[in-house]
């Protein structure tokens, strides 16, 4: 029986042995072209193409495999997995292969920003990832990926598993290169000892030359294979008319090899085969250790995505790939399983382990109607949930994306360091040329090795690594604390805060507002008053609204309710206008407004009116958070003034302010007034604003630095610079300490990197640094900087 090609649908010829494993099964292919394209799809992590397609693909011609794979990324069904819609553009996280230093990142960013339709491109050299935003109506993704490929780098949609595999392949390649360089170094060093010290007695010239040829044989594989990554990086930089870290290293190795080859063939002069082999060995060893350390720093955010299970169980019991779930799908989750998607619980109640999101170690009770998140772990009960967000828009994907954005946003010190590093490479090349000219005139036999030492010893790798590795490590540590960064300047600004402005309800207090007393007026009953109040508050997203949720009716009473942020809500029933909120708002239609306001109690309460007549008042209570006093105390201990800025005009605001001992209380302030207050502060004040509600959104967006509570409104979280996922205020103190330590470590890294280069340069020029010492010093400097940054991963804030 003739089989059809799984890729294009054509019959598979007899005795044809082309096949590819797709979706867990071996699939037959009709020709090498289909096999090549299908294998490329699988290797690129795009096997969902075969799940979604509605017809076989066209028969593949033997076009370059890279072109085939890039064109696949333009398919809408494939882009669903990794592309996000962002206002008027599309956005994707990319994995990059071949990026080794800041010059590589600068080159990719520079070249792509020249392309029409590119909105932004940010490359992170620590995580080897990039955030690309483009206009799909102007340029195709495949074209932009092609630009990156033509520069000599490989780019593909970021997938944690795929990048993990790529990392292991790269490390395996480095180990092979390192092994060959190590073996060659040992052999050549033994021969070099024989040549230099003549341990076998007086060696005649013929035997010396024989040993040189043997050294050449051992050193050549090192040059052609082990050192290849350095040449490729240097060639990319030179082709793009920029200078990277591997340019001086490659020049040194090539010059040393050519000079040694000439000396061996011509049987005169010095050879440096042992230096070449040691160069490659120590450089590869340093790069290998550096990659491991940077991988450790970058793994935290990528590992979050691995918490989402690969499969999900639908309501009917069938198994599907979790990444194919769509909004509205209903899935079941057994006890102990990870949730496959963000959703709302339809049946059952359980305790969810949300530590991967909030940092809280204790499981959180969840009941019908509660929102749960992908990657969290179900407790001891079976639940059914409805998917509310697809994978690309899930909380865990947003956390990874925002962390990437924060890590890719370079502070000023990092930008300066990158510029200095590029110009420093140019300076090294000029100084090296001058060094060679000087020593060639005064001591020509030493000119080459001294120049080699200068080229290698002063390579500014550590300078480019000083800031990005520290930022990546601290961002990962903040993620474990349950603090999500949304802007790149957070760590820098957090160190400079000298004014704390904080909201009351839901921030300093728990936001778990309780209705403790109801007082009615006129002929309306308490039951009727509570029902109307609950129906009006149904249209609000504020802690106060939740206090009335238990009194809602099955059928809404109001069709159209207006929400005047910071004042209250209004709606009509049978021609009567009902209002709930502050006394000034609910009595706006009453002709005796001023007299009534004078007698209204100013405690923590809201009022209900009908056509301007008072109907009821509701006394509320909101406990102060346990860690609020410590937050205020610690900030004040550092000399930071604390202002409580709240829309609550009642006596409750003063009570909370007195209990916490804040320096200043601004009560009864509208959203516009909050922003105006912030703008009125002294220009020398760097304000940290903490809030949670809709009315805090303007001031959160306008503050120097802002934090939104995790239990707050979506608009507040989207306006803030960082989000406190676990609602524990004490973590802001720990974040500040971590930011201060990050700043200290960045300064230490920069001081070491600059200090090392300033000290080693004159020593190398003067001929006091041997080439092998230069290699060890340069590699060691980079490892020290990365290792110093890794200390931040051990911090708990």
Characteristics:
single chain; 797 residues; alpha+beta; seven-stranded mixed sheet; six-stranded antiparallel sheet
What does this protein look like?
With 797 residues, the protein is α+β, with helices and mostly antiparallel strands. The protein is 50% helix and 17% strand. It is built from 29 helices and 29 strands. Strands 17-29-28-27-18-25-26 form a seven-stranded mixed beta sheet. Helix 10 (246-266) runs antiparallel to helix 11 (273-305) and helix 28 (730-765) packs antiparallel against helix 29. Mean pLDDT is 77; it is low at 60-65.
The average pLDDT value, as a whole number, equals 77
Largest sheet: 7 strands, mixed
What best-fitting shape do the alpha-carbon axes yield? elongated
The separation of the N and C termini measures: 66 Å
Fraction of residues in β-strands: 15-25%
Overall helicity: 40-55%
Q: Order of strands across the widest beta sheet?
A: 17-29-28-27-18-25-26
**In DSSP terms, counting alpha (H) and pi (I) runs of 4 or more, how many helices?**
29
Give the structural class.
alpha+beta
Number of strands: 29
């Amino acid at each position: 029986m003739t089989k059809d090609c799984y890729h294009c649908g054509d019959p598979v010829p007899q005795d044809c042995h082309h096949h590819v494993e797709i979706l867990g099964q071996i699939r037959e292919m009709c020709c090498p072209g289909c096999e090549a394209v299908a294998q490329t799809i699988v290797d690129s992590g795009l096997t969902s193409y075969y799940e979604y397609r509605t017809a076989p693909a066209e028969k593949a011609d033997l076009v370059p495999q890279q072109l085939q794979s890039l064109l696949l990324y333009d398919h809408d069904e494939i882009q669903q997995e990794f592309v996000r819609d962002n206002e008027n553009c599309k956005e994707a996280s990319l994995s990059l292969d071949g990026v080794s230093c800041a010059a590589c990142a600068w080159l990719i960013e520079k070249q792509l920003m020249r392309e029409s339709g590119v909105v932004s491109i940010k490359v992170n050299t620590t995580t080897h990832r990039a955030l690309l935003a483009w206009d799909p109506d102007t340029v195709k993704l495949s074209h932009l990926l092609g630009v990156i490929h033509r520069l000599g780098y490989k780019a593909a949609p970021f997938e944690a598993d795929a990048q993990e595999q790529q990392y292991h392949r790269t490390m395996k390649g480095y180990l092979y290169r390192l092994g060959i360089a190590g073996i060659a170094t040992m052999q050549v060093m033994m021969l070099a000892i024989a040549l230099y010290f003549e341990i076998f007695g007086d060696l005649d010239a013929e035997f010396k030359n024989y040993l040189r040829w043997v050294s050449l044989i051992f050193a050549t594989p090192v040059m052609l294979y082990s050192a290849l990554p350095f040449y490729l990086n240097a060639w990319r930089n030179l082709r793009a008319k920029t200078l990277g870290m591997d340019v001086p290293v490659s020049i040194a190795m090539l010059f040393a090899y050519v000079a040694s080859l000439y000396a061996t063939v011509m049987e005169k002069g010095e050879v440096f085969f042992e230096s070449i082999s040691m160069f490659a060995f120590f450089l590869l060893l340093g790069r290998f250790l550096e990659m491991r350390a940077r991988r450790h720093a970058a793994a935290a955010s990528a590992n979050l995505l691995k918490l989402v299970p690969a499969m999900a169980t639908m309501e009917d019991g069938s198994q599907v790939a979790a990444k194919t779930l769509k909004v509205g799908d209903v899935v079941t989750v057994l006890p102990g399983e990870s949730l496959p998607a963000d959703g709302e619980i339809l049946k059952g109640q359980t305790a969810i382990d949300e530590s991967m999101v909030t940092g809280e170690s204790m499981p959180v009770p969840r009941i019908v109607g509660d929102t749960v998140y992908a990657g969290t772990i179900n407790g001891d009960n079976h639940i059914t949930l409805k998917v509310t967000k697809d994978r690309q828009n899930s909380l865990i994907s947003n956390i990874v994306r925002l962390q990437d954005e924060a890590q890719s946003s370079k502070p000023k010190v990092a930008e300066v360091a990158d510029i200095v590093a590029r110009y420093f490479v140019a300076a090294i090349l000029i100084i090296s040329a001058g060094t060679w000219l000087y020593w060639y005139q005064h001591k020509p036999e030493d000119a080459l090795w001294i120049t080699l030492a200068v080229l290698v010893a002063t390579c500014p790798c550590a300078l480019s690594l000083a800031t990005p590795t520290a930022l990546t490590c601290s961002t990962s540590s903040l993620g474990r604390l349950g603090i999500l960064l949304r802007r790149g300047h957070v760590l820098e600004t957090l160190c400079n805060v000298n004014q704390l402005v904080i909201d009351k309800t839901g921030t300093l207090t728990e936001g778990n507002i309780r209705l403790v007393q109801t007082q009615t007026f006129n002929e309306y009953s308490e039951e009727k008053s509570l029902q109307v109040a609950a129906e009006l508050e149904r249209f609000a997203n504020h802690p106060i609204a939740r206090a009335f949720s238990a009194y809602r009716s099955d059928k809404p009473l109001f069709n159209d309710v207006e929400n005047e942020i910071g004042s209250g809500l209004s709606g009509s029933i049978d021609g009567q206008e009902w209002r709930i909120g502050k006394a000034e708002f609910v009595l706006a239609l009453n002709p005796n407004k001023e007299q009534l306001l004078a007698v209204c109690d100013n405690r923590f309460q809201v009022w209900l009116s009908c056509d301007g007549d008072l109907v009821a008042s509701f006394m509320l209570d909101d406990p102060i958070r346990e860690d609020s006093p410590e937050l205020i105390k610690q900030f004040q201990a550092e000399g930071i003034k604390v202002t409580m800025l709240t829309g609550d005009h009642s006596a409750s605001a003063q009570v909370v302010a007195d209990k916490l001992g804040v320096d200043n209380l601004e009560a009864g302030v509208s959203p516009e007034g909050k922003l105006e207050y912030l703008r009125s502060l002294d220009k020398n004040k760097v304000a940290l604003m903490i809030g949670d509600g809709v009315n805090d959104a303007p001031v959160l967006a306008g503050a120097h630095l802002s934090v939104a509570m995790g239990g707050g409104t979506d608009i507040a979280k989207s306006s803030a610079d960082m989000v406190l996922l676990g609602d524990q205020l004490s973590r802001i103190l720990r974040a500040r300490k971590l930011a201060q330590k990050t700043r200290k470590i960045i300064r230490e890294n920069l001081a070491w990197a600059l200090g090392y280069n300033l000290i080693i340069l004159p020593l190398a020029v003067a001929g006091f640094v041997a080439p092998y010492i230069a290699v060890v010093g340069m590699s060691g400097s980079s490892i020290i900087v990365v290792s110093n940054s890794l200390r931040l991963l051990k911090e708990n804030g």
